[in-house]
Amino acid sequence: MEVSVNETRDARLGALGFDVGRQHLAREYKGKRLALAGVRVAVYVAISAWLLAGFTHTVKGWAVFGPGLPQYALYTTALYFLYWIPVIPLGVLGGVVLERKYGMSVQGLRSWLRDAAKSLAIGLGFSILAVEVVYAILAAQPDTWWLYVWAIGWAVGLALAWVGPVLLAPLFHRFEPLDDEALAARLKALADRTGTQVVGVYRMLASAKTTRAFGGLAGIGRTRRIILSDTLLDRYSPDEVEAVIAHEFGHHVHGDLARLMVAGASGSLLGLLAVDRILRAAVPALRLDGIADIAGLPLVALAIAAVSTVVAPALNALSRRREAKADAFSLRMTGNHDAFRSAMVKIHDQNLGVADPHPLAELLFHDHPSGRRRIEAAVRTRP
């Protein structure tokens, strides 16, 4: 029976244009990445349990510069490395060995370690700043801290979306203005037709590190720009590139960024309220000196992760609906169903995206409709 199901799925994907061999590889690759993610989660949970069993007070004792902001920073640094060091082997296995084995990466170990060090530094810096702010608010406004943190978090999210393509992305990839003047003019004309303001069209030199292809919009307001990876430009026709970017403009026209930000903000507000209740209930059991005791940070992190896991399927469902509408917009704007279909098929096969995932996996983990659903929708709406 299993063979029959697999053969039926392969026949269906093959009829839609997908490379059946690449899709077999994609499912194998995805399964190994999920296994690694499961091990990583188990390690994080084990470390959190160890800390909450009492070791968190030992870590707090390492921050010997007295209470307040210096202690928060030192505790956060110690905790960051306690979580990070045990998963280094998983990072190398997933980020280097597995990626190269399946042809997704051409990046050497030295280059990967440089990127990992940058990510570590950025992550640690943001973590220290976030903990300093959150715990200062916890101490000053213990009854309404969650509301202040929520408002600040939303503002920071907007700021990062604005500066991301200008300050953060160039730390990991090189960007240059697109030298294909005809394609750049075509995409700018598409932007004008959709009422989307962009500062330019940029080529991302991704092929030095990855074989994945991607294109989209980055930034908001005066930093919004079209980004096309060289791995996309080298293998996709202008019609296919236009279909991909028209999809991204669909998000702008439909206000999807605002919709998803409001949905995410609503989820984060409920999450912070839940964290507040959990933290208050745990004060006696964890021997904390109140909710602003830095020793409770592992519980805060664990509670946020748990709440995020619970609300993620609802946010993914909203995202899948918006993605489907953006697909329909791309088809209407370009009128080129063939280019859209071929672009979606090529991206899935090239990036080893599973085009026909298990329905439960799609429901829980996917923020885009499956490749099969996207192609079938394009076929149904073709004039």
List the topology elements.
Elements: H1 2-16, H2 20-62, H3 69-84, H4 88-101, H5 109-140, H6 145-168, E1 175-177, H7 181-194, E2 201-204, E3 215-218, E4 225-229, H8 230-233, H9 238-254, H10 256-282, H11 297-334, H12 337-350, H13 359-365, H14 371-380
Parallel strand pairs: 2-4
Antiparallel strand pairs: 1-2, 3-4
Helix pairs in contact: 2-3, 3-5, 5-6, 6-10, 7-9, 9-11, 9-12, 10-11, 12-14
Structure description:
By secondary structure, the chain is mainly alpha-helical. Helices cover 72% and strands 4% of the residues. It is built from 14 helices and four strands. The protein has helices at residues 2-16, 20-62, 69-84, 88-101, 109-140, 145-168, 181-194, 230-233, 238-254, 256-282, 297-334, 337-350, 359-365, 371-380, and strands spanning 175-177, 201-204, 215-218, 225-229. The chain has a four-stranded mixed beta sheet with strand order 1-2-4-3. The chain is globular and about 65 Å long. The two termini are 37 Å apart. The model has no long low-confidence stretch (mean pLDDT 92).
Describe, in short, the structure shown.
By secondary structure, the chain is mainly alpha-helical. The chain has one domain (2-173, 253-380).
Question: Which tags fit this structure?
Answer:
383 residues, mainly alpha, 14 helices, 72% helix
Helical proportion? over 70%
One letter per element, helices H and strands E, the order comes to HHHHHHEHEEEHHHHHHH
Which word captures the global form? globular
Instruction: Return residue spans where pLDDT drops below 50 for at least 5 consecutive residues.
Output: none
Largest sheet: spatial strand order: 1-2-4-3
Secondary-structure class = mainly alpha
Radius of gyration: 23 Å
Number of strands: 4
The separation of the N and C termini measures 37 Å
Strand proportion = under 5%
Mean pLDDT: 92
Q: Please give the count of helices.
A: 14
Main sheet attributes: strand count, strand direction, barrel closure: 4 strands, mixed
Number of domains: 1
